[in-house]
Write a structure and sequence with these properties.
8-stranded antiparallel beta barrel; 5-stranded mixed sheet; 283 residues; Immunoglobulin-like; Lipocalin
Length: 283
Amino acid sequence: MTRLIPLILCCWMIPCCLPAEDLSGIWKGTLTQGPGGCYPRYFLELQINLINDQITGKAYDYYDKAHFVKMSFTGRYNPRTRRLVLIEDKILQADIPPDCAVCIKTYDLTWSKEGAEEVLRGDWKGIIQDRRVACPPGKILLKRAAASDFPVDSVQNDTLQALQKQLHLQPREKEVVKSITVNNPDIKIELYDNGEIDHDTVTVFINGKLLLYRQMLTDRPLTMNIHALPGIEYELVMYADNLGEIPPNTALMMVTAGTRKIEAFLSSSEQKSAAVRLVYKPD
């Protein structure tokens, strides 16, 4: 009995003994705002990626789906208190009435389980874009959702983002050659030349975001990494910049997720782009 007490105290005092919640995924609900805001109540969707208590993601704050503000955010999660603090750091897109202003927000939320539902609730505060004036604060209530109302982006650096804005690629038919389901959110995608190296070059998009531009396929992999949200479909599209010396433009794709390795063969031409769909479904 005397040996058991220190173990109980250890688990009570040390956060690592607590079960960890995976908050990665889609959370949807409402955001209220005090007097002085554009509307007293908005819809809110958070797309959360949680890795080792560090959070990144996107927020969609909207009155209707045609009028919204899209923000990126970072934050931290404390598994002991089940509290997460998120800080919006960049306006990615805004389509709001001219008499409204964008609030750059900080979220202070707590995770809980209410029956079968997972809930994030708490407060928010913020400042008005470019004016450094406080926005009327409010409350947030979100529930885990199976699907998003908006596109789920892949991570894209600033160089590729700027490049994509200048691209004018010829529209082509898309052919889905394979659908892959994995049970690990960390997905590595590698592209090799399929057979003889004949100077094929490819441009690759994932969920509409440019991730590779005019890269040559060789016996060394072109590598992309995704930290996937559960239940969200990620579509990779390989656009052939040329057909190489031996048409069509072909590639071997290797997908690695945890201990699983899956192969897919892609063939793109000047009329058609090959696509592969990936979905992460936890066990």
